[in-house]
Amino acid sequence: MISAREELIEKLAWRKPKEHFVEMCSRPEFLPFLAEICLSDDPKLNWRAAWVLSSIEVSELKKVFPKAQPLINTLQRKEKDGYKREIIKLIMLLDLDEDEEGAFYDAALNIWEDLALASAARLYALRGMLHIAKLY
Q: Cα separation of 105 and 117, whole Å?
């Protein structure tokens, strides 16, 4: 029998509409594995896991990521632009403590200043910086 983690990885490899992914992957037994894959170094699956996680309910997302620091740390890695964009979306849905706000702002600023990145990723970085600025 195939494990829940293996089943999720198999499903994430499909090219299906987002609604299909959200419906099947937001089951409670998949959420910890989605978080694990989202934080992994697998460029074929991590962005898709982040993409699916950005569509689940915020209350569920806060259970999966009680602290945003692991997500913020992924913004420092050399990853695809789309992955960074999805991570920024996730971070903006979470409640950040003061240290996380500073780390997120710094990471977003670095993304904003990197002209080699796609404009969508840079735009979401700017949105993230504005999100933090509104708090102060």
A: 17
How far, in Å, CA of 127 to CA of 49, rounded?
21
Burial of 67 (0-12, 13-18, 19+ CB in 10 A): middle
Tens digits of residue pLDDT in 92-102: 999 999 999 99
Question: Helices (H) and strands (E) in the chain — how many of each?
Answer: 9, 0
Whole-model pTM: value is: 0.85
Amino acid type, 100: E
Residues of 20-57 as b/e, b for ≥16 C-beta within 10 angstroms? ebeebbbeeebbebbbebbbeeeeebbbbbbbbbbebe
